[in-house]
Amino acid sequence: xxxxxxxxxxxxxxxxxxxxxxxxxxxxxxxxxxxxxxxxxxxxxxxxxxxxxxxxxxxxxxxxxxxxxxxxxxxxxxxxxxxxxxxxxxxxxxxxxxxxxxxxxxxxxxxxxxxxxxxxxxxxxxxxxxxxxxxxxxxxxxxxxxxxxxxxxxxxxxxxxxxxxxxxxxxxxxxxxxxxxxxxxxxxxxxxxxxxxxxxxxxxxxxxxxxxxxxxxxxxxxxxxxxxxxxxxxxxxxxxxxxxxxxxxxxxxxxxxxxxxxxxxxxxxxxxxxxxxxxxxxxxxxxxxxxxxxxxxxxxxxxxxxxxxxxxxxxxxxxxxxxxxxxxxxxxxxxxxxxxxxxxxxxxxxxxxxxxxxxxxxxxxxxxxxxxxxxxxxxxxxxxxxxxxxxxxxxxxxxxxxxxxxxxxxxxxxxxxxxxxxxxxxxxxxxxxxxxxxxxxxxxxxxxxxxxxxxxxxxxxxxxxxxxxxxxxxxxxxxxxxxxxxxxxxxxxxxxxxxxxxxxxxxxxxxxx
Length: 513
What we know:
Blueprint: H1 2-24, H2 34-41, E1 61-75, E2 80-92, E3 108-110, H3 112-115, E4 124-126, E5 129-134, E6 142-146, E7 151-163, E8 176-185, E9 193-197, E10 203-205, E11 214-229, E12 240-254, H4 257-273, H5 285-304, H6 317-343, E13 350-352, H7 357-365, H8 367-381, H9 387-397, E14 402-403, H10 410-426, E15 444-447, E16 456-459, H11 463-466, E17 470-472, H12 474-505
Parallel strand pairs: 1-9, 1-10
Antiparallel strand pairs: 1-2, 2-7, 3-6, 4-8, 5-7, 6-7, 8-12, 11-12, 13-17, 14-15, 15-16
InterPro entries: GABAA/Glycine_rcpt, Neur_chan_lig-bd, Neur_chan_lig-bd_sf, Neur_channel, Neuro-gated_channel_TM_sf, Neuro_actylchol_rec, Neurotrans-gated_channel_TM
Membrane topology: Multi-pass membrane protein
Subcellular location: Cell membrane; Membrane
């Protein structure tokens, strides 16, 4: 009994096999449409949908990719890019070649939901996607097109949000950023499937790109391998896998026009407004203090109400601008405090060695110290009053002919002067010298006459009196500082702008690509 059942089962299996062979050999009719041709090519006896498309021995299957970008929008705050793209994948499947079949079908075309159950499709994914949707109103926008030679083209329309590389904010707001769209093969490694960009126009864009913070400068397609390492310790054969990868790099430059018009230009106006105080009087305390504080507060408000940027620790170039403008505004306030302090001093003439910035600012910083040094110099140049100090003073110079007025008695001094005057009047060839009487601190040097040896008084001035001084009142000094500030501040700010903008715009190679 068992033997009879076994024979019956074998007969049924053989009959079903013969029937399947007969079905595979069925030819297509001349009026077969696209779907009839597709079902004929993908019969299970001819086509295994779980096997990848065959290729030459030892040669991986090549899958070509092309991207058409409809819409692009980059956000610097979220560090991401929103895109609407049309992705096109193409490969060759020899099992779908129907060029030798007598049919009037020029190509087979249909949606994925009709073909995906009967044919092999490559499994690719985006490595850095945050969100990906296949678009469509009533049905998903995907399309499969098969040519008579077996070339397959799979097209789908997607919307995706891509995460970008960390933002480099050092050159903000003149920085450049980049973001990549990376495609990887999911199931097969590089020895079985190799992804490549199409040689002719791999990337298109509609020209209607809508970046908010950035504008697109270039798109560069690249190809390579993505390496995955298995961390499992039990891996004995191979723990390293190379998957084919394609990357489309978007390079952006920030829209700096907003920052130029809404931040840089107003800050320049505010710095220039702080110079108006130099044309106001040093005693105009209410006006100058109100103007300086208003400009400073307005500039701080301008810095706080700009476009939000990501929190970044590196020092940015706009920080250099902000600190420099703050310094120029504060410097004008400090200048007002200086000239007002000088203007409120006593209206006494100030002796200056030279009418230059060095001596004027020295007096402005430490007037009492300068006056004290001058008085000490005068005292040190005079003759000491104490007899003991006087003897030390005379022994220092060791000149017996040096005498002070106090050492000369009134009678001797008067007699010598009278005798000398009579002698000079009697002589026609000699002129009368002028005798200048000075305060006791002036030294008198006796000179012997060539004829009679009578000492004659000559005057030797102290170093302080032989030097000529300029005199200015504190009010004149404060006005002089204001006048110089009208020139120094604009020149310094112009030099800073020249260095700052040349550093930004000329060395373009320093900017990150």
